[in-house]
Design brief:
Arc Repressor Mutant, subunit A, 340 residues, 2 domains, single chain, alpha/beta
Amino acid sequence: MPAQTSDVPPAMQILKLAMAGWMSATVSAAADLGVADHLAAGPRSVTDLAEAVDADAPTLYRLLRACADFGLFRELDGRVFASTELGDALRSDSPNSLRNFARWVGSPADRWTWSGLADTVRTGEPAFAKVHGMEIWDHFNNNPETATVFDDAMTELSRQVIAQTLAAYDFTPFGKIVDAGGGHGTLLTEILLAAPGTRGVLFDRPEVIGGAGSVFDEAGVRDRVELESGDFFESVPDGADAYVLSNIIHDWDDAPSVRILTNCERAMASGGRVLLIEAVLPDGAEPAPDIKLMDLDMLVLSGGHQRSAAQFDALFQQAGLKLSRVVSGGLCSVVEAVRA
């Protein structure tokens, strides 16, 4: 969010900034209830919507009138609501959907963790374990529904940045690509469609790989994909020309990040590349509010970081790699490394 330049008094500007969390919670509640899905066919009364989403009608009205002021829905006469182009991005079936991302940021796993930000700043320690009593990855293992929302949120976010990434970076020179921590394979599918001569390996935790594969079938690339499960802190599949890690390294502090990168360096073929798809921080004081807020989210959740190009290069050097280039692709860039 840029510095305020209006004539609004500073106290009122602070009030608006502080209330932004309420706006986020409102959007998350609408996403969790699935309101946009039930408006896909056209306007509906609050009474009908309340029955459809199993909510209290007068209370739902209070939520939806606030959402209307944000542009998510339109309020018509008689407490009838219609969707908007913006609101359609909360539909489950929209190609632009970020419904699960909105659900994730409104979940206790994320929202409650942010309540510990000040303590994290005091101590340098991520807030998640203190707030929830366990580390985030253990929490996901013990709460599979939350883990599913998170995985779906990351899939949606990945889908929205994929087109820009593929437009910016040419994957066709690589004969074999490993997508390490690749989730259900959305990114790898699009890479294989853009690079018809390339084969891929989807590598992730066993519980993730167990639910993967259908996206490859639907895209007609299943015969070019291997599914492998494992732990990238221990090893990654050998012999690939490129190792893609999309928004993986930002989850971790430097030491575990170097361990992952070292495993990629050891495994890759001669002349190989490590390709990090990450939102890259500017080196100086240039405004980048989205990336800087993402950095704070990584901080409180897992002690991770968004990094600058120079910080990525420092990680690479500890893993036997060196930064070769950064290819901008919108919100995320491709940070490319080769053997040192």
